[in-house]
Amino acid sequence: MSKTPTLTFLGAAGEVTGSCTLLETAHARILVDFGLFQGAISQERRNLDVPGIDFRRLDAVVCTHAHVDHCGRLGMLPRLGYEGFVLASEPTAELLPMVLKSSANLQKVRLSEWREGTGPDAAVLDPAPDPAVLAAAERTEEPPVLYGAGDAERVGRSVVGVPYGAWRELAPGVRMRLHDAGHVIGSASVEVEVTEGATRTRVLFSGDVGPDGDSHLAARGPAAAAEVVIMESTTGARPDDAPVTDVPAALRAIVEDCRKNERTALLPTFSVGRAQVIVNHLARLAAEGLLEGVPVYLDSPMAIRAAELCRRHPKLLSADARAMIDRGLSPYDFDSLHCLWSRKHSLRVAGRQGAGIVLAGSGFCDAGPVLHHLEHQVGHDRGHIVFTGYVLPGSLAEALANGTARRVRVNHQELDVRASVTRLHGLSGHADPQQMCRWLLGSGHVPETVLLNHGDPAARAGMATRIQGQCGTTVQMPLVGDVVQL
To answer: Do 419 and 442 fall within a single domain?
Structure first.
């Protein structure tokens, strides 16, 4: 019996986390991504609300990349009855088991900290935050534990690496291939071809699409030709005249400031993606001899592992990164770089004096080693905090980055904000709206339908206007739970 293929949106539809979409055909049920909802505690609770589908009947699960908003709930699969493979690009297949194991451990630690009252503490005191924001951030119940280390290891063993560009059959009449999306190492867009009699339908899931321009990763190509494109819209509300920093020049200035004023700059950093970009920029400065006497500390084991993964896949790196390798240099290592693997070493570096740079997770300044570095930096005139990416609305990071925070609490220490703050624009791992349109239409093929996901309402509306203005194709903005016939 024939069945019209359908898409069911189970997350990241009108929002930017929880990516999860089900493709159903007459012969197959394919789940693309199974990510965490992130942000407010109300969002976190949604992770316990499992999509109402029969996971035992899935023919395949495909993961676009190893960011937790796309992969963070994969560890739940064994408890939900799925016993098949998780398909991903070859680099993602290497990284994903580590990410899931880390996620399982973090869930366990957060529960212990909640019960003991020792959880991370980061808040703005002056100006007084909106009571609604405070209420949303107040935890009144135990943080959820979605899966344990055993579940993470079991899923990790089920991950299968698929080379970019290689077709793989998922079920009779259904096959897929992956295309490099240029977002982080191993990120992929997923092209699915469905054949029913004489009818062939091509569906493309963009995943997260990386930017054009200077990057440590190889330039991505345009979108594969498809009738239906499920496209991210993260940056859709960004204006064309949004500020863009000359990052190499800004980092040179930061290095010189650290050397001249004998101070350490703190860069809150996202471990997979942003950390490798910044380390690559610093490696170029080191190759010019500009980091002599300025030690750099990378305080994120996951970031260290991701950099090692990049080194193992030189074909996926940019021409500049490969040229460094040809000259006997590493795009992710240099003499003054120190990788911190333990909390003991991290705490020792946090109180250091003198010139230096610290890259510490997490980039949102809500947990992780960045907090004890921030505790030593934010209250001192010699402190210097450099934000390199997105900050959560209503968060400590946003207030610091925007220059509005006057007094804060970090790890139960109340501190006046005396540190200087720099914000680097232009390091986003997402393509801007113009670049997204070039990606979508770059092959010369105009899709019949574009379904926008992974964006808030303003972002999706902005992206829809651009797409319709350039090619006039049908653009839809489904919500969570919506079913769309192809």
So the answer is: no
Residues 62/87, Cβ–Cβ less than 8 Å: yes
The model's pLDDT over 381-407, given as tens digits with 9 standing for 90+, comes to 999 999 998 888 888 999 999 999 999
Q: Which CATH number goes with the domain that contains 222? A: 3.60.15.10
Find the angle CA(173)-CA(177)-CA(179) to the nearest 5 degrees.
155
Do residue 317 and residue 233 come from a single domain?
no
Mean pLDDT (whole number) for 104-132: 91
- Choose one of 423, 444, 470: the last residue of a domain: 423
- Residue 291 DSSP class: T
Q: Does one domain contain both 159 and 207?
A: yes
CA-CA-CA-CA torsion sign (195, 196, 197, 199): negative
Please answer whether residues 257 and 265 qualify as being in contact, where contact means their C-beta atoms are separated by less than 8 angstroms.
Answer: yes
- Whether residues 153 and 261 share a domain: the answer is no
Domain range enclosing 365? 247-423
pLDDT tens by residue, 298-314? 999 999 999 999 999 99
DSSP annotation of 449: E
What is the Cα–Cα distance from 84 to 60, expressed in whole angstroms?
A: 7
Domains identified in the chain, total number: 2
Residue 2 has pLDDT above 60, yes or no: no
Q: Is residue 108 assigned to a domain?
A: yes
Query: Distance (Å, rounded) from C-alpha 181 to C-alpha 175?
Result: 19
pLDDT band at 1 (very low <50, low <70, confident <90, very high): very low
Quick count: other Cβ atoms within 10 Å of Cβ 422?
17
Tell whether 398 and 331 lie within a shared domain.
yes
In a domain, 136, yes or no: no
Using alpha carbons only, how large is the chain's radius of gyration in Å? 22
Measured at the CA of 429, the angle between CA 187 and CA 287, to 5 degrees, comes to 100
Burial tier of 9 (Cβ tally within 10 Å: 0-12, 13-18, 19+): buried
Cis ω for the linkage preceding 362 (within 30 of 0): yes
